[in-house]
């Protein structure tokens, strides 16, 4: 089932409201990147709320490494982890995946790990520990799809070093704000000539499965309370 996410900005310029959809079974894992303040967390919250609304048995794990106020509405919920606790979040999610892989758990409802600031998390771990965490994430990215196990990562830069060669498994790539030449080269290589330098907060480009390239606008959240309510539902159910 398609999940409606953002607005096609090119159509908007002709006053046409075309909504860009995400098909999780075709593009299971998403990465959202851009400079600080470009709107990554805002866009991802919208994504998580829409997942919760449209897939009523989906379960979300939120790891918020930065730990500021963005996810404070989830405080005290069982699948919300902040700062140092993020390692527990990744571990619990990974065990859930392994239970499905081993056959112990036959459920196949959609489970999602959302990790905000994965790169900063890795940078602040001892090298050996960081490698272990990256290995887990790479396994989830490579093997998760058929078990309905999904990853959504938001961070400022998307260097391959954070993903142990599994970076190509992000089949939904969202770049917000004006990206550096290096970032464009890393993830939008074939489309970089079409990328304009006029991106504002909450606007950017989305690439699905390396082929569908769309100029997007992240819609404004009208009812923040409602959005938080839906995210919370998926983090607790
Ligand atoms: N599409 C949007 N519409 C309206 N406001 C937005 C939009 N996107 C972002 N904002 C606002 O811009 C500010 C920065 O957004 P956000 O926190 O999502 O950025 P970020 O990329 O996650 O930054 P950081 O890397 O520092 O965490 C927030 O106050 C947010 O409310
Ligand atoms: Mg953020």
Write a structural description:
The chain is of the alpha/beta class. It has a single domain, classed as P-loop containing nucleotide triphosphate hydrolases (Rossmann fold). The protein has seven helices and ten strands. The protein has a ten-stranded mixed beta sheet. Strand 9 and strand 10 form a beta hairpin. Helix 3 packs across helix 5. The mean pLDDT is 96. The structure holds adenosine-5'-triphosphate (ATP) and magnesium ion. Magnesium ion binds next to helix 2. One of its GO terms (molecular function) is DNA binding.
List strands and helices in order, with pairings.
Blueprint: E1 3-8, H1 9-12, E2 19-22, E3 30-33, H2 40-54, E4 59-64, E5 80-82, H3 86-102, E6 111-116, H4 118-123, H5 127-143, E7 149-155, E8 172-176, H6 181-187, E9 203-208, E10 212-217, H7 224-236
Parallel strand pairs: 3-7, 3-8, 4-5, 4-6, 6-7
Antiparallel strand pairs: 1-2, 1-10, 8-9, 9-10
Helix pairs in contact: 2-7, 3-5
The structure holds adenosine-5'-triphosphate and magnesium ion.
The site of adenosine-5'-triphosphate has 13 residues, from α2.
């Amino acid at each position: 089932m398609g999940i409606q996410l953002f607005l096609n900005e090119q159509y908007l310029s002709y006053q046409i409201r075309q909504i860009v959809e995400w098909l999780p079974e075709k593009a299971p894992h998403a990465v959202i990147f851009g400079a600080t303040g470009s709107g990554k967390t805002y866009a991802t919250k919208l994504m998580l709320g829409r997942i919760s609304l449209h897939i009523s048995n989906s379960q979300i794990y939120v790891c918020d490494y930065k730990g500021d106020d963005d996810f404070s509405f989830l405080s005290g919920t069982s699948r919300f982890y902040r700062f140092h606790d993020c390692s527990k979040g990744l571990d619990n999610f990974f065990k859930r995946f392994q239970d499905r892989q081993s056959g112990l758990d036959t459920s196949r409802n959609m489970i999602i790990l959302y990790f905000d600031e994965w790169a900063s998390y890795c940078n602040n771990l001892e090298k050996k520990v960081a490698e272990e965490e990256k290995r887990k994430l790479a396994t989830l990215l490579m093997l998760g799809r058929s078990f309905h196990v999904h990853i959504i990562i938001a961070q400022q830069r998307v260097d391959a070093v954070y993903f142990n060669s599994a970076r190509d498994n992000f089949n939904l790539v969202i770049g917000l704000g004006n990206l550096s030449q290096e970032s464009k080269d890393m993830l939008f290589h074939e489309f970089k000539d079409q990328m304009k330098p006029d991106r504002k907060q909450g606007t950017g480009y989305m690439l699905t499965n390396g082929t569908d390239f769309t100029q997007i606008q992240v819609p404004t959240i009208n009812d923040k309370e409602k959005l938080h309510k839906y995210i919370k539902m998926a983090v607790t159910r």
